[in-house]
């Protein structure tokens, strides 16, 4: 993230342990199975949560 005066700010929101665990389970699930589909929904939800956290950090530092 960079400010208008040229100052750069580095921040990171690390990948959650839950997301790593979901990836492991997802990789072991059979393609086309209902379990794999449910895991994919959970992974997408977790990504949305992390993206919201990143957006929140950016908004709070700028305002």
Structure description:
The structure is a single chain. This protein has one domain. Helix 1 packs antiparallel against helix 2. The two termini are about 15 Å apart. Helix content is about 65%, strand content about 0%. It is built from two helices and no strands. The chain has about 60 residues and is an all-alpha fold. The model has no long low-confidence stretch (mean pLDDT about 90). It is elongated.
Describe this protein with a few key phrases.
mainly alpha; 63 residues; single chain; 2 helices
Tally of structural domains = 1
What is the count of β-strands?
A: 0
Number of helices: 2
- Helix and strand content put the structural class at mainly alpha
Percent of sequence in beta strands: under 5%
Shape, per Cα inertia axes: elongated
Short description:
With 63 residues, the protein is mostly helical. It is 65% helix and 0% strand.
Topology:
Layout: H1 17-28, H2 34-62
């Amino acid at each position: 993230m960079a400010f208008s005066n040229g100052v750069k700010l580095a921040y990171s929101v690390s990948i959650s342990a839950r997301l790593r665990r979901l990836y492991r389970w997802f990789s072991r699930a059979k393609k086309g199975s209902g379990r794999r589909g449910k895991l994919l929904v959970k992974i997408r939800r977790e990504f949305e949560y992390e993206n919201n956290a990143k957006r929140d950090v950016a908004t709070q530092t700028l305002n």
